[in-house]
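question for whoever is on the cluster today: can someone run the full assembly for these? two chains, 350 residues total. i dont have access anymore since they changed the login thing
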Amino acid sequence: MTTRPLLLVLLLAATGCGTPSMYAWGKYDDALYKHYRNPGEREEWVAALKTCVLEAEQEGRKTPPGLLAEYGYALLEEGNTKEAVVYFEKEKAKWPESAVLMDKMIRNAGKRPPAPPGAKGPASKLESKR
Amino acid sequence: MTRPSRTVRLALAALAAAALAACAAPPKKDLGKFMAAQPRSILVLPVVNNSVDVTAGDYFLSTVPVPLAERGYYVFPVNLVKRLLEDDGLADASLVHGAPTGRVGNLFGADAVLYIVIQKWEAQWVLVSTSVTVQLEYTLRDAKTGDVIWQDKRTKTYSSDSGGGGLIGAIVNAAVTKASPNYMPLALQANWEALTYPGPGFPAGPYRAEYKHDYQPGAP
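^ ran it for u. tokens below:
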């Protein structure tokens, strides 16, 4: 019985390499990387961000700075203005440093015309520019 | 007592010079301006890419938020920032880097702005060995004054003939064999190194427990 805590400590030491993370990042950096590698795969990007957000909330660990806003922006690009504003508000409430930017995002989200059917966010927008 | 011979004196002088040189390297960073600025939030701008690999800028950008935010600062959402700048006609990162820091900072309400330039992001194949190199320059500016408050430069190289190379080596090596080298482990390593404090990095931000308690004036 006395060896149990020791094993646990050893296991923690072995798995958590370096200092433990302050935030529940999930696969945020990986999602970002994949988004830049395959900008056309928008659904994967939005889904990956959603997973990050939900996991952080479920684990009860701290949601990292920027994540809620990033998800909000992905929703905005999908034309989901109402949900986007919810996440901009959440970012602002959690991180007062984001207030200036989030206020802007919330203001502009209201002005943004609803996405025309078939619009697929910035990927198709960028292509049409070229 | 006889005076030390000329050779001994020369040798001593050389030793003293060597000792001084050893003390001087790595050069001490002056974090005075950083401490005066006391940023709470950091805006990471799109990366200027001077390498021939056109994908390097975006790929590298994805490695920055995690280690930076873990230092205890609010880090603005990098992709949202990038897209907003693109919408404003600033798709070219060098245009953004060339704009006045104060104006860019104000736009987002940031305390400090981080400029990153990729100087090298390359792989070289020589006979049977491969070497992969990334070189990055980091500059943090105070959004109010535009002053540089911290700077660092990292070069990371992995060479397949350096024998083993540990875990990083194994990861890079596995990628190299597929003919498309994976620079990401080296990029990550460069970031973690650059942001270590005490070390090349800067003191912890307001979201870390050691905030305001870890500053060592004149720490390397």
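summary bc i know u wont read the tokens: The longest strand of chain B covers residues 112-126. The CA atoms of residues 47 and 57 of chain B lie 5 Å apart.
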